[in-house]
Amino acid sequence: MKWNKLKTQFPLSWRNAFISALVMTASIVTSTLLRPVSENDMYAPLIFILAVMIISLKTEGYFYGICGSVLAVICVNYIFTYPYMAFNFTITGYPLTFMTMLAVSFIIGTLTTRIKQQERVRIEIEKETIRANLLRAISHDLRTPLTSIVGATSAILDNYDTLSPETKRELLSEVREDAQWLIRMVENILSITRIGADPSQANLVKKPEAVEEILSEVLEKFKKQYPGTAVSVKVPGEFLMVPMDAMLIEQVIINIMENAVIHGVTTTEISVSVYRRNLEAVFEIRDNGKGIPPDVFPRLFHGSISGPRERQQADNKRSMGIGLSVCTSIIKAHGGTLTARSMTDSGGTEFCFTLPMAE
To answer: pTM here?
Structure first.
């Protein structure tokens, strides 16, 4: 059973008690096994000090660490110090052992409490970043089809008598397609909002999808916005069915390709290849643009990918879409990874993400 599942199935107090009991039991068993092969009893205090450290790290607050310290001193005195199975409070160093274990539990408990508080702050910051990127994504991804719908319907209404039936049908088909796209986007916005600071816990509805169909949809949408960019696609001979949320994965691929055009500046060609590697599908997206500066890579998937001036110029052309940080969360929610590297031999950038082939 995975640890996060254990956390959701048992209350915090029961988990802490279970961890403490497990660690102390392991310490007693280990010390018992070492007794026949050791010439003195010095191993026991060290093992139980380590046990107190582990309990303080793995439990919440100070209570279980202090209880572990008291129990450890009792075990060392009663079980693993001569005379065995008897208390002897006159042993030299006994008070020092007790105070050492107590101090260890307090120090580790304080450090872990601070670390957990910092982790909670970090998680909240990541949530706010994802929310901001999501708002930009919604403004971009909903504005484009709405503008197309308004333009097509206005053309029909203003020129109804002069347009041929074929032109009207073509315009109405585009309106229906954009409306269907909006419906799917609205349905999947809730899926994106479920991807928080811990994407592995996101509750996505994944269905087996044909990779060829996903790429076909991506190319059709991408060509409408960037008809001047050449796109090549390479898929394996075998028929790949990959469990995924098709809309979210399409958005990830489109966003990466759009970034290649906007931020690559000199990008004229994009290649998309998919292949199977063991039990996962690998998606590689390469461009021949100017590439990404080395100093940008550390923060590439955690917020802005450009400076203020470049970001303003990019926003004048289009919004940031779903953003690379949200792309990372989507891929993590699918159980995969997203990476990027510069193509030193041919120039440009390569983005690579993986998706598990089976649940």
So the answer is: 0.51
